[in-house]
Amino acid sequence: MGHCLDKEAKPQSCTRRKYLQEVHLAIQSRDVLGKVTAVEQVMVSLPRPVQVSAAREVRLDRLVLDVTTCVLPGFDPRGQVAKPCQDGLFWAVEKETLLVCLFDGHGDNGAAVTDFCQSFVKAYFTDNQRTFQVSFTLGRRGNVPQADDGTVRC
What we know:
Blueprint: E1 3-5, E2 22-30, E3 36-45, E4 50-60, E5 63-71, E6 88-94, E7 97-103, H1 110-127, H2 136-143, E8 151-153
C-alpha cells in the first residue's frame, strides 16, 4: 500500500497520518445465488500495524521520496479464529532503483515461506541490480497511472 507524490504536490507529513483502531463493519451473509440474506453490524478493534519502519529519504533521479512501511495484520472480525500474522515486507535501494515487496503468508508454513522469499528476493535484487534498472521517467509514463489529484499510485 502506498502512494508517491509529485514534487509539486503538497503531501501531509507521515507523522500526521491516523490509523483508525475502532471501526464498524457490516458483514453480509449470502445464499447460493449471491443474494444478501442477512447483515450483521460488528464493532471491530483492528490490530496495530506491525513491522513498522521510520521514514527514510530516498533519492531516485530527480524524485525524492520519504519511505515508511508497515504490515496491517489480518484478523477475524468476529474474533472466532486466531490469525497469526505471517506477512512480510521489505524495501531496498540500489543506485537509482527502489524495490518494494510485500509477501502475504498463508497456511501452516506461511511465515517460513515469507521469510525465504524475502531473503531470496533481497539477494537476487542486490546481485542482479543492473537488470532492474529502468528510466523512472519512461517507467512512470508507460506503467504507472496518474490520479486526478496529481499523485502517482504505486
